[in-house]
Amino acid sequence: MLGLMQSQQLLISTLMDFAERHHGEGEVVSRRVEGDIHRTNYREVAARSRKVANALDGLNLAFSDRVATLAWNGYRHLELYFGVSGSGRVLHTLNPRLHPDQIVWIANHAEDQVLCFDMSFLPIVQAVHSRCTTIKHFIALCDADKLPADTGIPGLQSYEAWIAQQPATYTWPEFDENSASSMCYTSGTTGNPKAALYSHRSTILHAFASALPDSLNMSARDSVLPVVPMFHVNAWGLPYSAAMTGAKLVFPGPAMDGKSIFELIEAEKVSFAAGVPTVWQMMLSHVQAGGLRFSTLKRTVIGGSACPPAMITAFNDVYGVEVLHAWGMTEMSPLGTVCTLKNKHLTLEPADKMNARLKQGRGIYGVDMKIVDGEGAELPWDGKAYGDLLVKGPWIISEYFKGEGGSPLVDGWFPTGDVATIDADGFMQITDRSKDVIKSGGEWISSIDVENIAMAHPAVAMAACIGMKHPKWDERPIIAVVKKPGSEVTRDDLIAFYDGKTAKWQVPDDVVFVEAIPLGGTGKMQKSKLRELLREYKLPGT
Ligand code: AMP
């Protein structure tokens, strides 16, 4: 017997319909490439996404055709999120921080038909357009009068001129909720990048789950600042969960420095912000240097790489901002776990509470996880046993776009490439990326643990731990450190700083001071690049 409930496909267009009808006045504020602050609301965004849909029909794009963006976080990008997916096409957010050759490769692999780009990226598009063999239409995300006369890009038109003539009425098509809605290529640290292809259903289910109180706790009373780029796993799904809840959206545009972000938080009364640790490091430095305080920021979700304890402490204890440490992947839409405490943790001593907060968190409904040993046998949830982390659920990939790399699943589970423990309360803690774990004398050293200790030193701005070949121990850890401007610390000081904080054999053998640690397109430390930079390096005494 079937249930007698109405059947409605879970489509992204329904989010914008809802936001327009129930939160039409809900604000969407963007810092633009031009530098000014632009204000609009869900009603206007909905109308303009329908114009986008009409404009795409005008280009004769077929169902599932890919429309690429090369854009910062802003209202026009938001309109494309809904106009492209809502009309049945696939939004492909290209990462402008990649090398132009990679952008070409990815655009051709995705078979993008249209490219919409912010004017900051005009030089990139000028350099690559002739090699992007499938792109037929180029749209610059600007007013008509901001378009330079001769760009060399065939048929280039401004976004505003493109949608101006289109009607703001459009009947969103109904189709199977499993249809593709958007795609994102993974960082591609090895081999060619591969794409996760999200569906309408996976996107809506993910938006529901991430809005829950024990996830990101999104509501109509929030003012949300996604610092995480809209080209990094759909800004962690925030545009969708904001439309679902009617939260105010605040977009930073290209100004990602600490000062600009802080000013936007204050001016737009941001209550909730999301980003990778490197971004918050910049903002904390700015806030600390100027003796500033946050007046409205209540919580911040930090993920993408491990959040150093020193950062959690600074936010919580000094600024009264709750840190939600979260873990996920491009392949997981991205949310997997969020570190929100259970009742039993609330009465813990501050140090024990902090230990719980440091973990990457517990699974949200919709994400099942397990850890396994080298033979694939499941390991206990005791907070000690560590092994490869596998996940499954309705917003986790079943395979990559075009079947690249074959089936990634092992007995229906997706291997994350992370090594983790899970404790009896279900709190998962990443020990390392499996390729970053340091193997010393048959034992594993977590590079994250080594980095976290260094990051707690007052003179350290950034730290990255990598393994170096060692004739006796196989590998030994060293730590590359960027000093805070105006601060001093010597190699011996820093090594001494590890005393009592970790087992002796886990203390790095050496400290290498560097100007900067290479960061990837999404602001994560690129240890492969760091290894390349230090290829001439020799461990002391070897
Ligand atoms: P990406 O798909 O580029 O977002 O990368 C996903 C990977 O980032 C994960 O597999 C982890 O290795 C890493 N990652 C994401 N969030 C965290 C976190 N909170 N702590 C440690 N590593 C993380």
TrEMBL record:
GO terms for molecular function: ligase activity. SUPFAM superfamilies: Acetyl-CoA synthetase-like (SSF56801). Residues 450-524 form the AMP-binding enzyme C-terminal domain. PROSITE patterns: AMP_BINDING. Pfam families: AMP-binding, AMP-binding_C. InterPro entries: AMP-bd_C, AMP-bd_C_sf, AMP-binding_CS, AMP-dep_synth/lig_dom, ANL_N_sf. Keywords: Fatty acid metabolism, Ligase, Lipid metabolism. Residues 21-401 form the AMP-dependent synthetase/ligase domain. Gene3D superfamilies: 3.30.300.30, N-terminal domain of ligase-like. Belongs to the ATP-dependent AMP-binding enzyme family. This is 3-(Methylthio)propionyl-CoA ligase. The lineage of its organism: Bacteria, Pseudomonadati, Pseudomonadota, Betaproteobacteria, Burkholderiales.
